[in-house]
Amino acid sequence: xxxxxxxxxxxxxxxxxxxxxxxxxxxxxxxxxxxxxxxxxxxxxxxxxxxxxxxxxxxxxxxxxxxxxxxxxxxxxxxxxxxxxxxxxxxxxxxxxxxxxxxxxxxxxxxxxxxxxxxxxxxxxxxxxxxxxxxxxxxxxxxxxxxxxxxxxxxxxxxxxxxxxxxxxxxxxxxxxxxxxxxxxxxxxxxxxxxxx
Length: 197
Fold this sequence. Notes:
By secondary structure, the chain is α/β, with parallel strands linked by helices. It folds into 2 domains: 4-54, no CATH class; 74-191, Ribonuclease H-like superfamily/Ribonuclease H (Nucleotidyltransferase, domain 5, 2-Layer Sandwich), CATH 3.30.420. It has helices spanning 4-8, 13-19, 25-34, 48-54, 115-130, 143-146, 149-154, 171-191; strands spanning 74-79, 92-98, 104-109, 136-139, 158-161. Strands 3-2-1-4-5 form a 5-stranded mixed sheet, with helices on both faces. A hairpin with a 5-residue loop joins strand 2 and strand 3. The relative contact order is 0.10.
């Protein structure tokens, strides 16, 4: 026999999650508190229906290649444009990151079109300093990098291009961008300097 009271007073969090249309746990808690319905979250589980219906892309596989030597793979990415140019007129920067030790080189740019000349400058410097050649360059496929395709092929450098809209494939420089921008903004805030710096 169905009892309205026993249905309302069920204390299973997963049941309420389903009854409320698979909304977020935060919303379920809010509604239950608002309606003064006691509910335990002890045995809360991952909702398989939510995983199937709400996930926008499949989990990204972890790429666990280990590079034993410098310059076997160089990650690169461009950041910008900055809403405020630097005093020298720079609105972008490009970083080059060695996959071996995550050592990073940073170059400031006024325009994205400077990428090929800056890469050639970087390549000359780093190969001379480390006494080895760049074997592969991984980019996100931006048109500035595509302009380097022939140059790379002529020098035997493999050009690895990440799939469109998959920042995870170029995750190392993406995380470095975040670290650099957050550190810069924190230093500005701590120094009470205006954002033009």
